[in-house]
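Running this now, will post back.
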Amino acid sequence: MGRIGREEFLASDKLPLTVVVDNVRSLHNVGSIFRTSDAFRVEQVLLCGITATPPQAEIHKTALGAEDVVSWKYYKDTMDAVRELSEAGYGIYAIEQVEGSIPLQDFRTEEGCKYAVILGNEVKGVGQQVVDACDGSIEIPQFGTKHSLNVSVTAGMVIWEFACKLGWVKRG
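Update: finished.
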């Protein structure tokens, strides 16, 4: 299948995207986010607040070892991660349904820029203080009776869209 090994992964170019996980409770969701981040060679995952960190059996169950190759860091307070990313020149976007949010398909990236997306708690979403500190918010349009998606599903959709928009994946 042409998969690369651990050392090649670690040395490879990464998608200029950081995934920030803000107070996500489910270790399975965290593991799934790691696995998707591995699939698209995301630059790093930042785990914040109550979000569990590896090593954990439940994270490993869905990550299947991705937690061992994807760069990650823990922050007690998500705002510390946001400040650090801002100082490093990242465009920072909450994945959240708020007034003025940009539909995911309409979001435009700029060549040479680095991005960070913040995924929120399964019930409460991204904290308001964090949303306010971001450069903007992006939402996934939804047409059913529910107003949210599972956080790991959201991560997959957002990471895929960034991979396409940043030229890592060519669409039809």
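The longest strand covers residues 15-22. More later if anyone needs it.
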